[in-house]
Amino acid sequence: MKRGLLIPTLLAGLTAFDxxxxxxxxxxxxxxxxxxxxxxxxxPDGDVGAISCGTNGGPxxxxxxxxxxxMACRPEPSGLREVEFxxxxxxxxxxxxxxxxxxxxxxxxxxFAHPVIVSLLVxxxxxxxxxxxxxxxRATDMERRTAVSLMGNFKxxxxxxxLVCEDIPMKEGEQPVGNRFTHEVCTGxxxxxxxxxxxxxxxxxxxxxxxxxQETQEVNKGYFESRTRYEEVLAPHVPTTAP
Length: 243
Known about the structure:
It contains five helices and ten strands; from the N terminus they run ααβββαβββααββββ. With 243 residues, the chain is of the alpha+beta class.
């Protein structure tokens, strides 16, 4: 049922429990669904939200009408083109229509309950060579503070991939947030040797970010970096880390 028909129906005559029975909690198509090595043309345009050229975790780039328009995106140094997409937001519309009773349905584009930006990495032949997940800096401060913890979820998911993790030393100008500083990079290869991953997590203040305003002595809200970035690619491609 299309969103324009479903929501009025919910509001017009169904009880909240009747409405819940019609709601698909999981997204129809998410970042784990594409099979690496298969054509990006197999990705269903109608089962996702907006499609655009990706910017490596930044704001969406050029809007695309279809996954098949990937050649409109600028290639990265690897030669792959990043196609970003959002999950179908029909569930969020329904949750808002039902208000507080079904707040748990509100998820948007998320992985392990963390707001994220997701994208596919496509070669010139139109084959999906990789996937990228970056926690979304547009989230609330509370959500951003927990973004670094997504690393733990990925470590658990890829526990059989012989991950090698390294703590990155504090760079000039960086500071801990309170008494905590995290900058970690983990790399690994699938047991069959066909796929490589890199996961990077950080929780720190970058150069110039101060916890307190020097003028007012009040807390500078949002002046910190908390992020997890995941990239998986088929060999012989090598996953990149944050820019």
